[in-house]
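Let us practice reading a record.
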Amino acid sequence: MTDKGKKGTTRSTHPPTRRDFIKSSGGVLGLAAITKLDERTQNFSAAVAPPSTVSFPPEETAFIPNSTKEDPLIRMQAELRRAMQKPAAERHWAMVINLRKCVGCHACTEACVSENKLPPGVIYRFVMDEEIGQYPNVSRRFTPRPCMHCDNPPCTQVCPVGATFKQADGTVVIDYQRCIGCRFCIVACPYTARTMDYGDNYLEDEPEDSGLVLGYEQGGVWQSASNFEYGNEHSRTPKRDSPIGNARKCHFCLHRLEKGMLPACVTTCIGRVNYFGDSNDPDSLVSELIANPGIIQLKSELGTDPSVYYLF
């Protein structure tokens, strides 16, 4: 049965069926869905919109107070040039290593080997791999261990010929012409930062003229090419100025510093773990990091006062 209204419209007197309810509510649900989709589209558009300025990730400068947020390498490069304009006695080289960012890629170790032409068994910067915690909360920690360039180095105190000594800028060096290979300094170092060069090569049975591995400096075999540690040329032939038969260690790439370049390990690190500069400069990046409450020195209880610091 139907009733007719004043304008001739027909109105059903039967109760609404399930089909009628779905038809009437479909429009409302569709409108709500379109409205929600429009909101999500607007939010997505805002999320993918290009930023007006480009900034570094927060972890890049999280431990750098008063930082200008510029690339740390660019800042350290400028600070290096500023420090090199001062007398050696007025600067003190220091390094800060951020263990929170080290992933154990060993790129710094490889860069050091390449830069200093290190033979088998000689390593200046090994990376200690530790497993810490208890199952199931287990993680790995990587700790790069270069020479600490201590302010109170035990290695210099035991050398019978004065071949290893501390310079005015705080770096501890080795004079290859004086060293007699007694290895007293290797035993005295509490950080195992020194190794002995026994004259081994990677290609013991390969003829020198084979050209199998070329060195870009002299066009010869890489292992026979000279290195330029301490700013002097040192050949791999057993003569007085050769490092063969001597103790060897990290020297903060002094030959690079003299040319206005940062140490090879600093520029190579993919995670920006290493920071280097003049700790006597209160405005330098390393000075700001050393003032961080999370900074430590390895085995500080020994009184060696290392110039290498770690952020835990």
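A brief commentary: The chain has one domain: 58-311.
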